Amino acid sequence: MTEKILPLAAMERILKKGDPNVRVSEPAKEELRKVLEEYGEEVARTASKFAIHAGRKTIKAEDVQLAIKHK
Amino acid sequence: MTEKILPLAAMERILKKGDPNVRVSEPAKEELRKVLEEYGEEVARTASKFAIHAGRKTIKAEDVQLAIKHK
Questions:
Q1: N or C end of chain B, less CB within 10 A?
Q2: This prediction's pTM
Q3: Which ipTM value was assigned to this complex?
């Protein structure tokens, strides 16, 4: 379940990075938001487990890096 | 290369979704931003190719969906 945390204007900027001349539909921005939030939440769940496993209550950058490698 | 398009406050919200009691370091937010922007750009490059392949100049949601399946 995604919560529309990421701004749609940011999704448009990211989608135009592939090809600056391309246009972007509103549903395409919403789809990218959904995808990035789901991916982010998956990383977050794993990263918080790794932080706790390391005896911490704070997620560090290294937890995020490890979470990407071991999703 | 990422451009710091996504807001760090949004990264914090996403990182806390895994475990609301966890804290999040600033470098962890920056790391998640980097990861999500890189992933988003990869999806964007593929989605814009698929749009052009379909004879369009506009990325639609279906291009994003297909790009995720065929990165």
A1: N
A2: 0.94
A3: 0.94
